[in-house]
Amino acid sequence: MYRIVAKKEVAPAVKSLTIDAPLLAKKARPGQFIIIRIGEEGERIPLTIAGLDVQQGTITTIFLEVGKTTKQLGCLNEGDAISDLAGPLGNPTEIKNYGSVVCVGGGVGVAPLYLVAKALKDAGNEVISIIGGRTKELLIFEDEMQQASDELYIATDDGSKGHHGFVTDVLQELIAKQKIDRVLAVGPTVMMRAVAKVTKNHNIKTIVSLNPIMVDGTGMCGACRVTVGGETKFTCVDGPEFDAHLVDFEELMNRQRTYITEEKVALERCGRCRH
Ligand code: NAD
Ligand code: FES
Predict the structure, then answer these.
(1) Residue 44 is part of a domain; what is its CATH number?
(2) Do 55 and 139 belong to one domain?
(3) Rounded to the nearest whole angstrom, what is the distance from the C-alpha of residue 256 to the centroid of ligand 2?
(4) Which region holds residue 268: left if phi is over 0, alpha if psi is between -120 and 50, else beta?
């Protein structure tokens, strides 16, 4: 069992859980993820790693309550425990001194991007970050991203803070005024597809962290299959990061919708906090 040592609501329907997992905290690197199961009959879901504390032996994950399992997870409190936690999974982000790197984060995707931005800054890069949310209440990790970046830009869909519009508008403006060596994007798939479209026109190497449906997280089940550069890849073992210009985003989005009906039924049957 893995004990929850702290819980916070970081934005409406966005929760942060800090979990006692000393071995994982020691081993995990920016860009990797975990798969958890709340109880023995629960489904396995992938979650991002938003914080690591080797001294305390904890990891922090941040998630949006969208379906049955994330809502159940959001009902747990400090002192509760989850039955399984597998990780760290996937390959860490390749951290090098690339020069000027733009980190683009959308919604809850900003949380895992923080550790990546911090590592890139520590490696000597000029880190320019752009974070976006539908409205200012949904912006997360603003202070953390400020610390991890040389410059931070904010965009909200409704204009309640920063640029009125998408993160990609800000990215376009930045590209027009300075040389960018690399772009990393984490967030909703539509955002990552839009980032890829912008940077492809300027031939800027762009890395995206994909979030398909996952089951085992070890390359056995095929649930996380994506097509990259015409080849089949398994996100859990070959990714989660891929060259954005080679990803078949349409196929990924279709596959993400595979169980939409079942997910809706499961959510309707799930009374909050009665798992
Ligand atoms: P959201 O829908 O509120 O979007 C966040 C921001 O992304 C927007 O404010 C906007 O700036 C940008 N964006 C959205 N659509 C865009 C478009 N068409 N063009 C350009 N920019 C666009 O995000 P949310 O509700 O927090 O949803 C988070 C999503 O991120 C979930 O689907 C979740 O599964 C996913 N996620 C992905 C990862 C990952 O590793 N890629 C990690 C965590 C969460
Ligand atoms: Fe099963 Fe990747 S989650 S192969």
Answers:
(1) 2.40.30.10
(2) no
(3) 13
(4) alpha
Asked if 80 and 105 sit in the same domain, the reply is: no
Indicate which ligand has the atom closest to the C-alpha of 190.
1
Distance CA 74, CA 41 (A): 17
70 and 198 both lie in a single domain: no
Domain end among 31, 65, 89: 89
Indicate the residue among 39, 66, 89 that finishes a domain.
89
Alpha helices in 151-234 (DSSP H): 167-177, 189-200
Domain-located, residue 36:
yes
CA gap 229, 172 in Å, rounded: 25
Does ligand 1 lie within 6 Å of residue 157's CB atom? Answer: yes
Give the pair of three-digit tokens for residue 192: 């990552």
Contacts of 137 (CB under 8 A, 6+ apart): 11, 12, 160
User: Of ligand 2's atoms, which has the minimum distance to the CA of residue 223?
Assistant: 1
Q: What are 184-239's pLDDT values in tens digits? A: 999 999 999 999 999 999 999 999 999 999 999 999 999 999 999 999 999 999 99
| Interval between CA 218 and ligand 2 midpoint (Å) | 6
